[in-house]
Each structure stands twice: as C-alpha cells, then as structure tokens.
Amino acid sequence: MDAKLIKTLREMTQAGMMDCKKALDATNDNLDDAVIWLRENGLVKAAKKVDRVAAEGITLAKDNAHYGIIVEVNSETDFAAKNQAFVKLVDEIADTILKHTPKTIEEALNSKMADGQTIREAQVAATATIGEKIELRRFNLIKKLPNNHISFYNHANKRISVLLDFEGPISNDDAYNVAMHVAAMGPQYIAMNDIPEELKNQELSIIRATAAEDPKLQAKPANVLEGILKGKLSKRLSEISLLDQTYVLDEKFKVGDFLKAKNVTLKEMIRYEVGEGIEKVSTDFASEVAAQLNGGH
C-alpha cells in the first residue's frame, strides 16, 4: 500500500487513515473510485448514527444586512465540536438560513448551500467525515427594522450565544454589553410580566413548603409571613427577569434602569446554550471499549 496515496485520499476527503486504506484496497488504488467508495460507505455509517443523542455542539449568532440569526448545531462530543470543519459548517449553515429565511427546521434542511448541496446533505456528509451524528437543532431569525438595532454575542467557548433586538438609538457598545450580560446571567424572560403565572405559582409553592419547615417564620403573624413569602418570590423572579437583574457591567443600575436611561426598549431576547433541554445518555466508556474489542457487540 502506497502511503502517499493514503495521505492524498485523506486530504481529499478528511476521512480516517484506516477508512482510506480500506477504500484504496477495495478499488485497486484508484483514487477517484476510492472517493466514491468512501462517500457511499460513509453515508451508510451516517445513516446508522441517526438514533444517537447529539447533545454537544456549537451555538452561533451573526447577521447580514436584513436579518439577525442565532443557531445551534449539535454533535455527540465536545471534541467533535472543536473540529474546524464542524465550526466552518455551522457558519455556512447560518449563512444559508440568513439567505433563504426558512420558517421551519424542515425548510432549513432543504435549503441549498453555496456549494449546491442542501443543509441536510451537508449534515450527512459531515456525520460521515467526522464520525459523529451532526444535527441542526434550532434557529431563530429576527428581521431588521428601520428604528431597531440588532446585537449579538458569542461566548469564546462557542457554547452560548445571544441575539437581541432593541427599539431605539442604542450604541453598538451598549447593545453588545447587554448581550454579554444576558450570556453571563442567563435570564429566562425580559420582564416580570413575561413570566407565566404557572411558573410564579410553582415558585411560590416551593417557597411556602420551605417556610413551613422554618419554626421562626411559622411563629410570625399570618399577614407578616405572607409579606415575607411574597418578598422571597419577588427576589426569585427578579433572578430570571432581565430588566430586574443587577447590570454586571455597572452595578449601580438594574438592566431595566440602564436601558431606560438610554431611552431604548428591548423587544426580543434569544439565548442559546448548547444542549439545554436535551437528555444526555451516560456512557460507560470502559464497557464501550471492551465491547468494541470483542467484535463491536
């Protein structure tokens, strides 16, 4: 086997060394046929990976002249998420969605990328090349309006991204800093009024249950106790309401006061964190390796 041929095939396809060797063996060292063999066999392997859980990956927020976008693309391990080919793919997926502005994941998957393949086809090819399930999980688009300002922030680890839409004249720096605050503090709602009553009632029930086990609180008059419980609820809700959080870049202000001083309103807030809400499968690595050594069963 010519080592130079293997090296050339790896550079052409990004496939693993052993896969390249098998491909060349199967095609009598014909490079063109070996590329086809890898593609065909890779697609089969990729199809077998569709049931795996992809809970790692990358988030990305960016914009063009007309829209802002935030997207999450998942992989199975954080190792794969650091693969530069994967990072590039996520950026290309975001650009494709910005161009075609699909309404659903299905529409997005059928959108054609710059190289002519659909996002779905690019996912399958990446799954075959990287060796892990690659999956577009979600995206949001915000249309740019004349009096609005879209800002975004991507954390250095590529695991948290934020997309914000302001109404009013806010500077790029101020908008970016608020987006950075959202990334760091993880508010779930813009304002108290946005918090569903069901969630408020759940939190109050938890607070009441905790208070019932505190003799000092139970000794207080009913009206005083009620006031204390409502105060605790208000404090808890302020932790998940952006406008009620203390602004991390200037602790003299709450975020709401800061925006009011700038005469702007936050119309939309979207924060993605990789894997949130996905049930991860714990793997016994030693058992998995042993199984592979015993024939992959």
From TrEMBL:
SUPFAM superfamilies: Elongation factor Ts (EF-Ts), dimerisation domain, UBA-like. It holds the Pfam family EF_TS. Keywords: Cytoplasm, Elongation factor, Protein biosynthesis. Its main location: cytoplasm. Coiled coil: none annotated. The keyword Cytoplasm applies. GO terms for cellular component: cytoplasm. GO terms for molecular function: translation elongation factor activity. It is found in: Cytoplasm. Belongs to the EF-Ts family. Associates with the EF-Tu.GDP complex and induces the exchange of GDP to GTP. It remains bound to the aminoacyl-tRNA.EF-Tu.GTP complex up to the GTP hydrolysis stage on the ribosome. HAMAP family: EF_Ts (MF_00050). This is Elongation factor Ts. It comes from Entomoplasma freundtii.
